[in-house]
User: What shape does this take?
Amino acid sequence: MPKSASDKRHFIIAAALIAVSTVALYFLLERGMPLPPGASTEAGIIDNLIHWHLAVIAFLFSLVVVFMLYALVVFRKREGDDSEGEHFEGNTVLEIVWTVVPLIFVVVFAFYGINTLAEVTKAGPNEFEVEAIGQQWSWTFQYPNGVVAAELYIPINQRIHVSMQSKDVLHSFWIPEMRVKQDLVPGQNTEIRFTTTKVGDYKVRCAELCGRSHYSMETPVHVLEQADYDQWMSEQAAAQNVAVAQSAGATE
Amino acid sequence: MSLMQLGLVRGLIGQAIGTIIGLALVTLLRAVFGADPAWVPEPAWVGGAIIGGIGFMYGVGALDDWIKWVRGIPTPLHHGPPPGKPAWMRYFSVDYNHKIIGIQYGVTGLVMLMIGGSFALIFRTELVQPGLQFLAPDQYLTVMSLHGWTALMSILLAIGGLANYLVPLMVGAEDMAFPRLNAFAYWINVPAITLLLTSLFFGWDGGWTVYPPLSTVGSMGFQFVFYGIFMLGLSSIVGSINIIVTMIRMRPPGMSLFRMPIFCWAVLATSFLQMTATQFIGMAFLMLSWQRLLGMGFFDPAKGGTPVLFQHLFWFYSHPAVYIFVLPGLGIISEILPVFSRKPLFGYRWVALSSVAIALVGFIVWGHHMFVSGYAEYLRVPFMVSTLLVAVPTGVKFFSWLGTMWGGRLTFPTPMLFVLGAISVFLIGGLSGPILGTVASDMFLTDTYFVVGHFHSTIFGGYTFPFIAAIYFWYPKITGRMYNETMGKVHFWIMTPAFWMMALGQMSIGVMGMRRRISDYDPALHVEFGHTLITIAGFAIAFSILLMVYNLLHSLDVGKLAGNNPWGSRSPEWQIPSPVPEHSYATPIRIVGEPYDYGLANSTYVQMGTGSPASFGGSHAVAHAGDD
Assistant: This one.
């Protein structure tokens, strides 16, 4: 086993171990951090970002831990050896390298982060409008035609624009399958956008502590085929006695 | 011997009397001014909380000398145990010796850690199954919120303990610059703890972040938290000033700033953060209190305020606070690693300045806690970029630690194991940060258990593990005896895997959709197994901490004698007898070399003094300035 700290063989072995460890760790992380199935365009964008993060985490974790474990084994004090370690106080080139390289990572991720943010929050034409009102401890949804519902019904393949108000304290609108999240603030309108891609039943879960029954502030969300949605809407409109014509315009 | 001889007992009685006076005074004032009804619990209890705090400080005797100054009575500094009383009583009364105060801080910090941990075990047990078992939702939230603040209090106390005990020793000073202020800064924590724990009986459901409007409409327990934390903040501010002055003014000849033991740099950076940021949370909590009491509309949209303002004020302290919590711990890692690697600290100046860099960047990242809070959208990008920048100086620390170990002669006694554990745990905490720092992924992960896992790894890696490493490392210096090494290693091998399981488990269920701060969860999330593992891990950690406490207490009597310098450290405090004598250094020391030149033949760092005790120039000058 090579003994000198600057022996190149140390670094070759460590580099090989880091490569193996990075791959293994990445697969472990992907399995150990199972994302709920995505149901929106934004979920795809955000999941990609998360996968990249996990890959970088796998690499950096391996980088530090492999070097650390390697040093613990190779540079441990041997029985009967009373000498001190090799005397070196630092290395300016190395310090600059490990300042600048992370800085490059930061710039790349900042750039990537800015782009994903712009993508998941951008407003589009012909958005499906709905209002969400949060209160301790329930949700109410109001459609532009005046229909009011206790559960959220939305059509598939639409960019949904939810504008939100709170009646009392802070709440947060979160459908895990859609990924995005936004707080509701009393006295202020906040908004959130997501594009539905999968028919199914989900739940909007309040994600900001709002008091005693915060845990139970969950309400079903139904993403429907356009026809099913239209049918639901016309039934609701009839039952609540409002004009269906407006709803057709709103869902365009 | 009567209990009344203990300052602590007198203080608590003073607090009780002060509380009664406060309750009566507010009620009387209301009656005099014709408010109807005269007795309203909340304002009365706030009056009680404030005057009770003053009552404690008066009762314990932390104000005695200052009152004498006002009256023109001389107050010479007394050294050693109080005349005619046993030495152990010093720890329960006002004492001006920084080593006593350091122990007071440290032990109180450890006790608070155990209380905070116990709160966690209570609600972790509730979470093993979906459904509500034995805690009602509001009880759950009270215990969960208290876990947060007791644990944070533990951190501030423990780093106060480390800084108080170690900094004067490391800079060869006789004591802190302002010994009386030092005692005040410790003792004000005790009424703070009393108030915080009293909140348990009144209930509060806001989490440690106490965001309004919830905290301005919820039950009265909030008020006890506000004033408890206010007193804690006062301790932070005056304590940090004391430490800064000590470090700047009382170093021995030859100890330039870049020749201080590296822990001092970490404490210096932390102290500047404490001195400049703590006011914000104090102010924010007073504003909450006054909105509740007086109807001032700071955060009330109906009166022109906004709830989001509170979040800015809160995080303007509470983000730097995270660096206050972890910088001393990272300093401990950098301090202990070279000793057990028998090598110089790699890139001393880079490590020192990276602490300063983290502290500075720490001031401009608070908005990353608020990406989805509803603040102006353009703020998201600058806060994202500044947040990612923290990775750079933090990376410097990690790489420097690797460089320190590389090529050394490593040994692995318990403190070294905990240092290595700290590095691995802080690494998990650090690496789970950027994913929360980029806004889009944060929109998914914020307010989930992923954040809980991230935060706990940061704090365990930056505080708990290093604090435990420090306890084992300096135990021989403090007590003169060695702890039990086998028990120490068992502690490590239980706690470290258990913590990994806990933190990774929290992150995992967070990704699966588990929200924070809920007493019951949707079985459809399939997080029950994860919760069970986390709870088991929590109990394992608690057991291992109890093992440590037993080890420390037991070894006081039976541990083998440590000698001056069992670890072969070059730092000044290891060149004097263990336990450290009343006057740490018989004569002033000189610094004649670099602190970490392990492996360099014929190098010296500390030259023990030969002069007379009276030549502690700097320390005496400042201490006397404090006297007058």
